[in-house]
Amino acid sequence: MLTLSQRLSQQQKLSPQQIQYQKLLQLNTLALEQRIKTELELNPILEEEMELTQETDDKEKDEDSTVDEIKDPDNEEFSLEDYMNDDDHDHEKVYRGSDEEQFHPLAPVRETLSEHLIEQLNMLNLDENSFRLGEEIIGNLDDAGYLKRGLGEIVNELELFEHIKIEPVDAEKLLLRIQLFDPLGIASRNLQECLLIQIRNMKNADEYYSYIGEKMLIEFYDDFTKRRFDVLKQKMNLTDEALKETVNLIQSLNPKPGEGNIDSAEMNQISPDFVIEKVENDYVITLNDRSMPSVTISRQYLEMFEKNRKRGKKSSREKETYKFLREKFESAKWFIACIQQRRDTLMRIMQAIFQRLKVWEASKEVGIGLKNGLANLQGLRNQTVQALGYKDFFQYQVSDYEMSVEEMRELCQSMIKDVWPLYRELHTWARYTLAKKYSAEVPEMLPANWLPNRWGQDWQGIIKAEGLNIDEQLKNYSAEWVVKKGEDFYVSLNFPELPQSFWDLSSLYPAPPDAGYKKNNHASAWHMDNDKEVRSLMSVIPNTRWWSTSLHELGHIYYYISYSNPNVPIILREGANRGFHEAIGSLMGLASLQSPLLKEMGLMEQSFEVNKTQALLYEALDYIPFIPWSAGVMTEFEYELYSKNLPEDQYNVKWWELVKKYQGIVPPNERDEKYCDAATKTHINNDAGQYYDYAISFVLLFQFHNYIANNILKQDPYTTNYYGSKEVGKWMYDVLSPGATVDWRVLLKESTGTEMTAKPFVDYFDPLLKWLKEQNKGRKYTLPETF
Known about the structure:
Blueprint: H1 16-25, H2 29-42, E1 46-48, H3 54-69, H4 80-84, E2 107-109, H5 113-122, H6 128-139, H7 151-162, H8 168-178, H9 191-200, H10 207-219, H11 221-225, H12 229-235, H13 240-251, E3 268-270, E4 274-279, E5 282-287, E6 295-297, H14 299-310, H15 316-364, H16 366-386, H17 393-398, H18 405-437, E7 446-447, H19 471-474, H20 479-492, H21 500-505, E8 524-527, E9 534-537, H22 544-563, H23 578-591, H24 595-600, H25 612-623, H26 626-643, H27 651-663, E10 665-666, H28 682-685, H29 692-713, H30 726-736, H31 744-752, H32 759-764, H33 766-775
Parallel strand pairs: 7-10
Antiparallel strand pairs: 1-6, 2-3, 4-5, 8-9
Helix pairs in contact: 1-15, 2-13, 5-6, 6-8, 9-10, 10-13, 18-26, 18-33, 20-22, 22-23, 23-29, 26-27, 26-29
């Protein structure tokens, strides 16, 4: 039976110009300079622009009028004007380097190349004789990095003078290993061998062009070195594009891996892409492209078009010539436009980076004024609790969990250890993702100002997850609707409506412009009398963040309401522990963004399918970085502050030592003891010594969610919907209502069947871990494999 079907699909393909632009954008200044030189050789339409006089400029203007008149003799839908003045692209016919004063700042690298190679030789675990041969090979390299003596000659000399006998085959194997050292191709015996080693071991190179390049270097090396590109094209049966990309690939290799720095007092020199100067409180950014060759369209070929036009009817050969020139004009025009677009893009990116830097620096200024106050609080807090019999303020806060300081620190370290494999993958992915975003070298550690959160505790701003951002849908509603709908969520679980005093006396929305006061926008929930009076401080606006935050804060409110019952004495009307309180709030925050709930609330199209990997990545960027931050940086800093009496003149160095150790984040500039970057975090001053509460709450949150999904709702943990489930409401009330009358460990075991464990947390993100490992193949990890 024959059936017919139609399918309409939409695909987005990059134009040749977009592809070319993306390739150029990835090149540094030196590589781009080489790329321009290659293009000048391959495309006769392009020529290097000399410095113009005013007379030449006037002549060009006169000739431009002639250009506008050139028409295609065969009446094709094409004119030179279309190519030189494309309405879709704002570009110039000539690309010149920047007109600013030329800069030549050079960064010194003090390690000589021979030292660098010996370090790598030490890592090969060689026997004494092989190591001695390796030293001799390195010692016999010329300034370009080539082995200037025959390998057999070196082997014979070692046997004659040092009685070290090495078989020629073993010597050859060692030489091959050294040739794979950094820089790749070092110790080659000739240029051909050097290039072949590099092209065979390049990372991230296109496999097809690498294969063609290797074949070109082996079978047609003489043609390549003599630049017989037409011959190569014919012999290898290559398209223009394949030839160009292969030649570009080979010319991107390093023909002189030694760079003339072996055992020299001179230092390797690095040419930067940008020059950045700080002038007063601002940064001046200059693109270091003054020495870049300037390219333009060849006037000689423009004249060929004019002659072609005057001849009238053309032969087939002349038509082929015209077609060839037309293609080259198109390629040249795109190339010039792409170079200019690259320059504009790089400047915008650098300006964005330094705008972020300025904002980040401004956010840390407040720490300067808070430093003395924190030192005062450090002494006062310790002295106050010591009068109660506690050793220090940190021990006092930990005692709420009925644990010792060391037990709490061990618990925090175990949480970090459990999530470390996932955090390490996420850290590597973020380094490469943000480096690509900012067109920068991949950093060893994450610069603090690159991240969307100024402490690096939340990375969600790195991506925008479709379907998980409901800002557009919430624009149709008011801030009041957001909070009321949050109340409705809890009521659907069989919790009571909020008391009228909550609505009358809470401050839930942003202060009006004419308020005459500044409002603290940090969301919080308050139990005013340890009974029925509850309040919240928020600044709700209808967006995704405040939708989730509202349900989180209402989780605290309903916890207060639940344990304010006759069975719980007033003194025990608090969470089973502080982490429990945060876990319930965070649990509701997680539930608030599950797709079935959003669809039921009308905040997501019924037909919309959330990409599971994208959704998990979005959630992981919130939850995973938070654990090393909260259980590591914040906890250990406050332990040092209170238990170890950290001196005031070591606040900042200790802070950044911990940030690097636990988060793999570094400041964008020097942070001396003038600053107190720790004090810029509200909790260091206001809710001191207990940030581990939040780490514990995240572990408990996934234990709770796992139990609800699997044991009560029997739904996929990734697509649950708590709304309207009285069973979920009863389970929650049974957890909340005892307050602190039951030991938290007993309550946890009774309510979930297990003791506290990060396994549900880690298992939830296991599919993402596999995905991240695939993304990070071939990438360099800079955090240790184990914590």
